[in-house]
Amino acid sequence: MSPVSPGPSRRLLLAGALAAVSAAVTGCSSGGAATAGGSRRLRIGYFAFPSGDLLVKNRKLLEKELPGYHVTWIKFDSGAAVNQAFLGRSLDIAALGSSPFARGISGSSPIPYKVAWVLDVAGENEALVARKGSGITDVAGLEGRTVATPFASTSHYSLLAALRTAGLKTSDVKLVDLQPQAILAAWQRGDIDAAYVWLPTLDELRRTGTQLTSSKEIGAAGKPTLDLAVVSDELIARDPGAIDAWRKAQARALRLLKSDPDGSVTVVAAELGISASDARAQLGQGVFLTPEQVASPDWLGTDGAPGKLLTYVTDTARFLAEQRQIDAAPAVDAVRKAFYLKGLPDVLK
């Protein structure tokens, strides 16, 4: 298959955004400043993926920080859908992978949002798996085979990096754009030979597959991916205090992941509808930073001093441009402007 085209224009994405997210955001106005009852509203996008986000949602940590707000949680299946929702002004805050974020801030009309937090660093919770019995034992063995991944995701980015390391071009394999649940269905039908995807779908594939590589290995080789959290420019202008409160809630969740592992397992199991043993195993595959690490020079950084994440995002965009996934990578200054660091690290104390 030839390299994936850079994709539709922002205008076309915007036109498709309403259809893509209308079911999830029914009843939400574009501005999102207040509900009919007069209370302030926050629309938060999340993934059914083990992280501190699920603790914030389940334990209503944000509502405790903002008792006068109406908080709506909207589940998404991919970063591409999150990007479309921001284009449609249907979200205030959302989880988003580093690769779709790099895409979002690229081009002549970047999406009006900024990164404000790091949820986790991709580890063994995203991986490339080949079907047992396919004869595929390494990434090079994917030549001529059908490989599925959600396009414009961190898994897509990691798959491209894995292929290049193995000496393969995208045209050497048949790449198929499928969301996690569709990947599982295609796997069960025998339509695909391999897939790069994240938990919990990943664990389903592992039952009848062989893992070839993971985002932990690819990150260690110089292509790390992260699950970030972004905030809309509109929210930054309208209500920066809500972002401070949200960061405090996220910081508390990260601390709970370490201080109350059993309680965290219970929450993740409930949110994902899985057993406690599966939830514990899935949490163990992620890399969760402390709040202090998030705001350190090694990661997000602080107000006036962006951390290494600036380099990671810049490098990701350049790699995507080299792979013809985007037209051109943004300049470093443009990436820097897409960071919202005001209040860090003081707000975490």
Can you characterise this structure?
Strand 6 (146-149), helix 6 and strand 7 form a beta-alpha-beta unit. The radius of gyration is 19 Å and the shape is globular. The N and C termini lie far apart (51 Å). Strands 2-1-3-10-4 form a five-stranded mixed sheet, with helices on both faces. It has 349 residues and is an alpha/beta fold. The protein contains 16 helices and twelve strands. Helix 1 packs across helix 4 and helix 12 (261-272) crosses helix 13 (276-283).
Main beta sheet strand tally, sense and closure: 5 strands, mixed
| Rough outline | globular
Strand order of the largest sheet: 2-1-3-10-4
Number of H/I helices? 16
Estimated structural class: alpha/beta
Number of strands: 12
CA-to-CA gap between the ends?
Answer: 51 Å
Mean pLDDT: 90
Helix and strand sequence: HEHHEHEHEEEHEHEHEHEHHHHHEEHH
Q: Which tags fit this structure?
A:
five-stranded mixed beta sheet; disordered N terminus; alpha/beta; 349 residues; single chain
